[in-house]
Design a protein that fits this description.
Structural class: mainly beta
Helix content: 10-25%
Number of strands: 55
Strand content: 35-45%
Largest sheet: 8 strands, parallel, barrel
Radius of gyration: 31 Å
Length: 993
């Protein structure tokens, strides 16, 4: 677990090994070279590397082959807490501590390494080894040496955790750092409770460990210490132990081999850990998270449960993104794990074994290593794909269905792989499958694993894409060092950067007029898929939202061949463009998903590679159920089967315009019981149109068909009543020239609790402090649909308390689809003759999904100023300019939020504009804050010299108040809270007395 200090602007771009790999064969040659270098390393022929990031290096190979590690937090303050080092060691030994036990538990989890966190700021800074360096608890028994030896005997590597932070030295009321003893050892005064003094002490420990434990595999470092960096600690580790790995927590330090990402939450699905990771491949990446659902990172006396669904989901989705699962468990003083953790480990040992080939020694599929499309699939299904390592590793793929669909089939993009065979890996059952239109459908699935149903998919390889060496890329904008040429160089370590320009376009030159059917876009995986915060640092998706694609034969006259929105999702995104003949293809990016609240990601488009497809795998003989052109359907009037390469089965039904006389009728759509079902229509239309659906002879329901490419299907769903057994469904169009129909699909509706993911942004954000009397507030709101669904009958409006009025009515839209927005603004006025606060005013979006009423809401909260204050504003208020700081939750704070990560750079400041006072002169500025230790604010008014305000407290959880005199001018003023050189306290609110 980290101490809560993170960098303000972590380095993200890989900085070394730029070997160009134009093809998969070139990647294979690089892997072969790595293997050769690794061999050289073992015989001492490889020199110590330079002090810069090696994104790929032979010493990393063992971790690249790993799937998981075991993270053990264990020390003096493990329950029951010990305040004496000798007493703790005695109880450890008398309790029967065994290194072999830890190694055996790790192997059950499929963990190839253990990270031991004993020298931890919250565990008494204990050292589980005999040490000649005084300063904190050190054992006489060599527990670390025993663990290293036990791990070596059983193929489990040991990595040692080291902390940078002394701030918890007196957490239990007893001093755990012995400055006097260490000062005597060094021959000069050293205060271990300061960062510099602690840096000196821990610096010495690194060298002691390197000297005494050559079989250790590296250090897991919980953030950097300035003393280490000044003395080139990491470079010296590289020189002395060139085979050891270095990992850092929550920050991408260039020289480190691995970036660890701690305890991510808030994803959809909850287990989809990679959705929150911000480290691009092929950088080695860990997901470090607790297996116990509740409790601390260390044993706190409780036998906390382990959520098998959440934990197995994380394990599989991490493997499907080439991310290592570093799973934290909580050993007791005697080293044994609580019963529920032991039980989970035993389960994992049994559960993974039948599918081990799909989890161990694999890479994530759908990324730089090839493979089919991970993520959300049909009918609520979600999962990932893994592929083998090596030159032809992607010929065998594993489809992991972590969330099963509501039907008996799984349908995902095939990404150009021709499938030969599909097998249920757990049962050995050969599966029926259908492949056409760029999709693989696995049919008739009846044997579902509750956590991960795995299908082994054997293919003939990745085929219908032009070689990157034959494509030239240019762009309307590019950042220096990241040119458009990187889009077609076959190297996922280089990327194009749009230089924050939007709209922006990329043009691909195929060299001659050629067939083109799709663009495969590998966006850089350096941002999360959704708006979130990591330790207060705002993050958001830097992925494409709205786009257009154009085709041209001469580069001058362009024809739009596709427009739409891409989902904010990981993995390669495919844009079908029908069947085109063109030399030039232009991708125009109109907008990204991220918002301005996360400036590091806002409008920052980065793309690794774009490939151009010239075809699709040949359709299989096995049809997909409910294709429109199927023989058992009745086509009437002008309805006829026509070719459509991007459609299922390679065909669709056209001629449906003109009313019910031109129709397709499904005569045997089966339902298990009476009820409402989700009917999906895959249709093609060059212009906005509609289809009409009649079920069992009932009155038809009109379904909108969005405009797109007439050769590329789009999907729309509607709720229909079906009876148990056979049903007839008739589809036609009342338009003069109706859409084409590719297929329909029938599934149970989502559960009643399901609400599609939306983003509702309401301004102002933060508690609004107002003076006495009647008041008016201007409120804006934007609703955005983030899921690939359709919302109907959408309304957006404030729900006013009694007596409040608004100057306008609700904003409405007939429907919203992926990425579309609805915006509105109102002036809200409180009742006359009374004060405005307190009042909570929900701004609510109401809409229907498949006929079900749904809503999302975000309130504007108004409060009356305290009698001794003339003005107040929350630090998290949307009127402020937060720089590179971030908002985090704070229950006791005035608005239940605060701003953290203030200080350490000029950008890490909060600017309060429009601080309006009627008269100039001196005022008292009150600052509400939280802090652990001693830190300082720098307070500047109207750009003047800052005043230093120093505060001290323990815990960083209880809001306190301090004050400083300031001189203001009449009217609007600005107040900046900062600290250019050091971390400042967290800020809850400022106010004027």
């Amino acid at each position: 677990m980290p101490t809560l200090r993170i960098p303000l602007r972590p380095a993200r771009a890989p900085l070394a090994i730029r070997a160009i790999r134009a093809t998969r064969a070139a990647r294979s040659r690089w892997r072969a070279l790595c293997a050769a270098l690794a061999l050289a390393l073992t015989v001492g022929l490889l020199a110590a590397p330079a002090a810069e990031a090696e994104v790929q290096h032979p010493r990393q190979e063992w971790l690249r082959q790993s799937t998981a590690g075991l993270f053990l937090h264990w020390g003096m303050f493990t329950h029951p807490r010990h305040l004496d080092c000798a007493d703790w060691e005695r109880d450890v030994t008398e309790g029967g501590w065994s290194a072999d036990y830890w190694v055996d538990e790790a192997r059950k989890l499929g963990a190839s390494y253990i990270v031991l966190a004993t020298f931890h700021s919250r565990l008494g800074y204990a050292r589980p080894w005999p040490s000649k360096i005084p300063g904190s608890c050190a054992t006489e028994r060599d527990l670390l040496g025993e663990l290293v030896a036990a791990g070596k005997a059983k193929g489990v590597r040991i990595v040692l955790y080291m902390t940078d932070d002394p701030q918890w030295h007196n957490e239990q009321g007893t001093e755990t750092l012995d400055s006097a003893a260490y000062s005597a050892y060094k021959g000069r005064d050293v205060d271990l409770t300061t960062r510099r003094g602690f840096g000196m002490f821990s610096y010495d420990l690194f060298f002691e460990v390197m000297e005494n434990y050559p079989d250790l595999s590296g250090f897991w470092i919980d953030n950097d210490n300035e003393y280490w960096e000044e003395r080139g600690l990491y470079e010296q580790i590289r020189e002395r132990r060139p085979s050891w790995l270095l990992s850092n927590n929550n920050e991408d330090t260039p020289i480190m081999d691995t970036v660890s990402n701690e305890q991510k939450t808030g994803m959809t699905p909850t287990y989809d850990y990679p959705a929150a990771v911000t480290v691009p491949m092929p950088r080695l990446t860990e997901a470090d998270y607790k297996l116990p659902t509740t409790g601390d990172w260390w044993y706190d006396g409780g036998d906390h449960p382990v959520d098998a669904r959440l934990s197995t989901g994380r394990y599989i989705t991490n493997a499907g993104s080439s991310i290592k699962s570093l799973m934290a468990e909580t050993p007791m003083v005697n080293g044994k794990l609580p019963p529920q953790q032991e039980e989970f480990n035993d389960f994992m040992g049994r559960w993974v074994e039948p599918v081990r080939e799909s989890v161990y020694g694999v890479e994530g599929g759908g990324y730089m290593y090839g493979g089919m499309q991970p993520g959300f699939w049909n009918d609520g299904a979600h999962g990932v794909v893994t592929v083998g390592r090596g030159e032809d590793g992607d010929r065998t793929q594993y489809v992991h269905v972590v969330t099963r669909p509501r039907t008996d089939l799984v349908r995902l993009r095939d990404n150009g792989y021709t499938v030969r065979r599909v097998t249920n890996l757990r049962t050995g059952e050969a599966m029926r499958f259908s492949q056409s239109g760029g999709h693989l459908s696995i049919l008739g699935i009846s044997d579902w694993d509750p956590y991960d149903t795995v299908f082994k998919v054997e293919t003939d390889g990745h085929q219908p894409y032009y070689e990157q060496s034959g494509v030239d890329a240019t762009a309307s904008s590019a950042r220096a060092g990241h040119p458009a040429a990187a889009l077609a160089d076959g190297n996922h370590e280089t990327y194009w950067d749009s230089d924050a320009e939007l709209p922006v376009s990329v043009t691909l030159d195929l060299g001659a007029r050629k067939r083109a059917t799709a663009l495969a876009v590998n966006q850089r995986e350096w941002s999360p898929t959704h708006a979130r915060s990591t330790f207060g640092r705002p993050e958001d998706s830097a992925r494409i939202k709205d786009y257009r694609v154009y085709a041209s034969g001469d580069g001058k006259r362009w024809t739009q061949v596709r427009a739409g929105a891409l989902r904010s999702a990981r993995g390669v995104q495919t844009i079908d463009i029908g069947d085109q003949e063109a030399r030039y293809l232009k991708l125009e990016v109109r907008s990204l998903w991220g918002g301005p609240q996360a400036p590091e990601f806002f409008n920052q488009l980065r793309i690794d590679e774009i490939q151009v497809a010239y075809g699709r795998p040949k359709p299989t003989r096995a049809p997909l159920p409910l294709e429109a052109e199927a023989r058992e359907n009745r086509l009437s009037g002008a309805a006829r089967s026509v070719e459509c390469g991007a459609c299922s089965g390679g065909r669709r039904v056209g001629g449906l315009g003109g009313g019910p006389r031109n129709s397709v009728t499904y005569r045997d759509i089966r339902a298990p019981e009476d009820g409402d079902y989700r009917l999906q229509l895959d249709h093609t239309a060059a212009a906005p149109s509609s289809l009409s659906v009649s079920v069992n002879g009932a009155a038809p329901v009109k379904v909108p068909a969005v405009a797109g490419n007439p050769g590329v299907p789009e999907s729309t769903a509607v709720s229909v009543p079906l009876k148990a057994g056979a049903n007839t469904v008739r589809v036609f169009s009342t338009a003069a020239r109706g859409p084409g129909l590719d297929r329909v699909a029938v599934a149970p509706p989502p559960p009643p609790s399901y609400t599609p993911k939306t983003t509702l942004t309401v301004r102002p954000h933060g508690l609004q402090w107002v003076g006495p009397g009647r008041r008016s507030i201007t409120v804006t709101a934007t609703l955005r649909l983030d899921d690939d669904e359709q919302l109907d009958d959408v309304g957006l409006a404030p729900r006013l308390p009694a007596g409040w009025t608004a100057d306008g009515g609700p904003a409405t839209a007939r429907s919203l689809r992926l990425g579309q927005t609805l915006k509105a603004s109102w002036t809200l006025t409180s009742p006359p003759g009374q004060d405005a606060g307190p009042a909570d005013i929900p701004v609510t979006a109401d809409f229907k999904l498949l006929g079900r009423q749904k809503s999302v809401s975000d309130p504007v909260r108004v409060r009356q100023l305290p009698a001794d204050r003339m003005w107040a504003r929350e630090a998290e208020d949307s009127a402020n300019r937060p720089g590179s700081t971030g908002i985090t939750g704070c229950g006791p704070c005035s608005g239940a939020e605060k701003v953290r990560n203030i200080g350490g750079s000029e950008q890490a400041a909060v600017l309060f504009p429009d601080v309006v006072v009627p008269d100039g002169g001196e005022r008292t500025l009150y600052l509400d804050y939280t802090v652990n230790g001693t830190r300082s604010f720098h307070v500047s008014v109207n750009g003047g010299p800052p005043t230093v305000v120093t505060v001290t407290d323990i815990g960083n959880t209880t809001p306190r108040t301090t004050s400083v005199p300031v001189t203001l001018k009449p009217g609007a003023n600005t107040i900046e809270i900062s600290n250019d050189t050091e971390p400042a306290p967290d800020l809850d609110r400022i106010s004027l007395g």
